Automatic annotation (TrEMBL):
This is Acyltransferase 3 domain-containing protein. The keyword Transmembrane helix applies. The chain crosses the membrane at residues 7-27, 98-120, 140-159, 171-194, 206-232, 253-274, 343-362, 374-395. Keywords: Membrane, Transmembrane, Transmembrane helix.
Length: 415
């Protein structure tokens, strides 16, 4: 089947957005959507109510990554549906995620549990940042071991897990969700070669609606699987470009996809920029699976949440991407694809750079009398440069070897 490198290129875009989120959440938190810093300089408030909604919005970025992960994860089996490919993917997944996460998590513990973090406390006090926190310190090896173990064990309360609070920026929860949802995809994708396409669409749609009702991330991941199935086995691109038949006419599909994007984007702009007090009201429209027998009135908004507005924007964008070659051609650009290949490395390295070199540089410049904007700009340049270098080193020394080790381990087990 044709190359699907455009999906890697799409991931590259969110790699850039992820860096912007972590940096801005640290240095200019008022400019970030859903920030606890609701007041601040006017330019930051304007950025929060405009560009931040779709450009460095944490929930949007990582929701898209979860769906995109499911969209790509099942491709080997869908293109070659046999038991060897299926078992190989399932076996290698844990090793592939475990090794880079172990190295980055260990570096974080070494950086923030063996040395003083007073400089971060001072930074947060000086900048008035209440949207992030100083990484927690590990008391002993047992706490370290259990925290790391739980990353690949938890099925709920991802944001409050110890590992996420030890890791700077509090974004390590995404690894837990992606790992858990990988096996939702694996267990579901095995039906593909043995069922009719029309039945699968109906069954997976019911699955998605049910997952939505119980507020499970499977709502996103199974949507990614259904998209992959439609592309690989149902000729989605041709049917989407041909449009839907209504009587004697064919109605193009792109207006519908655009409506999805506009509707989701409008919901985000309305409740981030206009009525933020109702931002999380939509989260109550699910059953309280772990908290109550009725609706989700006791939802913990500090936990990562699968949101309706994000879903609408993401599904609209994905359908446009899957439909038009021109969009795919742009996403296949070398710089986006190469960035997408390094996305996991960038994700794991960027908080370490920002919370060590970035914050220390800021405090040095602050002590020298530099104003906030100049110090922040200098930190941005330095952090971006160091992140690119550190991520490249991590990619070549840890990320790629983890893929090789996973493959070799599979060969050894199979032999």
């Amino acid at each position: 089947m044709p190359s699907q490198d455009y999906l890697i290129g799409l991931r590259g875009i969110f790699t850039v957005q992820s860096f912007l989120f972590v940096f801005l959440q640290t240095f200019t938190p008022t400019a970030v959507a859903d920030s606890k810093n609701t007041t601040g300089p006017l330019y930051q408030t304007i950025l929060r109510k405009s560009l931040s909604v779709l450009c460095w919005n944490e929930s949007f970025i990582y929701s898209f990554i979860i769906l995109l992960s499911a969209r790509t994860l099942c491709l080997p089996f869908l293109t070659e549906p046999n038991r060897t490919v299926c078992s190989s993917s399932i076996f290698r997944r844990g090793i592939r995620l475990w090794i880079p996460t172990f190295v980055a998590f260990s570096l974080s513990v070494a950086a923030f549990s063996t040395t003083s973090t007073q400089y971060i406390d001072d930074f947060l006090e000086v900048t008035g940042n209440i949207s992030t926190m100083t990484p927690k310190r590990m008391r002993n090896f047992l706490v370290y071991f259990n925290s790391f173990f739980d990353i690949f064990w938890l099925t709920k309360w991802y944001g409050s897990q110890a590992a996420n609070q030890v890791f700077p920026s509090g974004t390590l929860w995404i690894v837990s969700v992606i790992f858990q949802q990988s096996y939702t995809v694996y267990m579901t994708m095995v039906i593909v070669p043995y069922t009719r396409a029309s039945w699968r669409v109906k069954a997976l749609t019911i699955f998605i609606v049910t997952a939505f009702w119980v507020q499970s991330w499977a709502w996103y991941s199974v949507t990614g699987l259904l998209l992959a199935d439609a592309v690989c086995n149902m000729n989605l691109q041709h049917k989407s470009r041909a449009g839907a038949r209504v009587g004697k006419f064919r109605v193009p599909m792109w207006p519908l996809y655009t409506v999805f994007i506009l509707a989701g984007g409008l919901l985000q702009f309305l409740f981030i920029a206009w009525r933020p007090e109702h931002r999380n009201t939509e989260l109550q429209g699910h059953t309280g699976l772990y908290t109550d027998a009725s609706l989700n009135t006791k939802v913990d908004v500090d936990e990562p949440q699968a949101r309706d507005d994000n879903y609408l924007v993401i599904i609209g964008i994905m359908l446009l991407v899957e439909t038009y070659n021109s969009i795919q051609k742009v996403l296949r650009s070398r710089i986006l694809v190469e960035m997408g290949r390094r996305s996991f490395s960038v994700f794991l390295v960027q908080p370490l750079v920002i919370y060590t070199a970035g914050i220390k540089l800021y405090m040095h410049m602050y002590a020298s009398g530099a104003n906030h904007e100049i110090a922040t700009f200098a930190c941005f340049v330095v952090c971006l440069s160091l992140t690119l270098v550190a991520a490249e080193v991590f990619y070549r020394s840890v990320d790629i070897p983890s893929v090789v080790i996973a493959r070799e381990a599979w060969k050894w087990v199979k032999a």
